[in-house]
Amino acid sequence: MGSPPAPFSDIGKKARDLLTKDYNFDHKFTLSLPNSNGMGLTATGLKRDQIFIGDISTLYKSGKTTVDVKIDTYSNVSTKVTVTDILPTTKATLSFRVPDHKSGKLDIQYFHPHAAIDSSIGLHPSPLLEFSAAIGSKNFSLGGDVGFDTTSASFTKYNAGISLNKSDFSAALILTDKGRALKASYIHSLDPLNETMVAAEMTHKFSTFENSFTIGSSHVLDPITLIKTRFSDKGKAAMLYQREWRPKSLVTLSAEYDSKAIDSSPKLGLAIALKP
Fold it and tell me: Tell me: the pLDDT tens digits for 109-146?
């Protein structure tokens, strides 16, 4: 039996992650305190300009159930309860945020050897309905997603995509923005030993005939050091340096220069993640 396809949201994800993941142009600090008895505590602080945002979350795992509770600086309490294998190869997630009484949502995922299905419904009188599906295999998949707002009786989104994955490359083509744009992405492994990869993403808007693209690279200098670069047609160049200075603890430096904003200073970011 072949490997099942990834969810529709994972189409193009490999290239997207190389181009965007871990880039941060603020000051961010994360402290994670795992516990062998299934409990975990994570504290996060983010300083953006003169604004400080923070949250504390706890994670509890017991058998097939995971409970994640997060409290932020605005006194919002977000809760997510996930239960796996209620039925074979299914996962159900109930999430809600207090005091927002319209934030409740139920998400059901089902995995089949040749399909991955995800559906969600808002838990209030006029819910938002979302459905996505992908069929195929680990190497080739196609799918789509759709969102429907019952309040306005209108579609909030509908997208379709196709992906081809091999050991050394991954390519994806996605019709997005309600069919108004076409996005193509590609990632290629140049040196598996040093995990050297390059990626590119291009978007074409049908209404304006506008094209935009971003290219990037990732290279592992040694087992604890990662360097990434990124360039876009908007004249922006970015670089990331990440080092695991102790096991599972990372320090990440990011910088971005906008050649079209000559009066602005380059953006600099620092992220520290501690996991004792």
Answer: 999 999 999 999 999 888 999 999 999 999 999 999 99
pLDDT in tens, 188-203: 999 988 899 999 999 9
Question: What torsion do the CA atoms of 184, 190, 195, 199 make, to the nearest 10 degrees?
Answer: -20
Q: Two tokens at 172?
A: 């994806």
* Separation between Cα atoms, residue 1 and residue 94, nearest integer Å: 31
Return the H-helix or E-strand segment holding 222.
strand 210-222
Q: For the chain, give the number of residues.
A: 276
Each residue of 212-261: pLDDT tens digit?
999 999 999 999 999 999 999 999 999 999 999 999 899 999 999 999 88
CB-based burial, 72-91: b 16+ in 10 Å, e otherwise? eeeeeebbbebeeeeeeeeb
Query: Which DSSP string corresponds to 50-77?
Result: TEEEEEEEEEEEETTEEEEEEEETT--E
Number of H helices, E strands in the chain: 1, 19
Decide if 205 contacts 181 (C-beta within 8 A).
yes
DSSP annotation of 85? -
Nearest alpha carbon to residue 26 among 265, 274, 271: 271
Angstrom distance (rounded) from CA 230 to CA 77: 36
Which structure tokens are listed for 52? Answer: 């400080």
Q: Residue 229 in contact with residue 238, Cβ under 8 Å? A: yes
Give the CA count within 13 Å in the CB-facing half-sphere of 129: 10
Cα separation, 163 vs 13, in Å, equals: 10
* Greatest Cα pair distance in the chain: 58
